[in-house]
């Protein structure tokens, strides 16, 4: 027994001291909307797994067409492990200011009506229902969303990681018997998603511009194969009420 205890302590210590290997989960920063609600913007940022390089990606999306506006997306990565993450974010912010100034986005950020971080393991990751704004009793119809995953062919090398998937996002009908509204459905797997293995609804951001049509954006967390483990990135799907 005396010989066993030190060996157990050494094994336990080694396990805790071993370097962790894991993919990276990009942090989500919802930037906001243009004053008229026609553009929605968000940032994802973090330290890339494997390389240790800091990165910041900014996306500016037309809320009417669900397409990137000119100059977007902005992708900054500093290929230096010693580089500061804030430097990458600053460079991306400066480029993004040419599309919509950061001060404008901050002044029109809207309201985070629902949020589910990638770390949450309880509840239904494919369904979210929210009151669009903090008014009680509610004066708006419930915004209820359903995400569906389905098999979709990815690059050949993805076969080593598991079946790749696309997604379909719908807004459920407000009244009984009302048809659901299709917000997005993949027909092909974009190369930017790599080996996409799964999805979840991460947040709902709403905005009621003064004198304009209200809009919202659904943030979808994408789980994909990374260098050291699963990576998490973000997709924004905007729509009008």
TrEMBL record:
First and last residue of the signal peptide: 1-22
Entry keywords, A to Z: Signal
Top-level division of the source organism's lineage: Bacteria
InterPro entries: DUF2259_secreted
Name of this chain's protein: Predicted secreted protein
Origin species: Aquamicrobium aerolatum DSM 21857
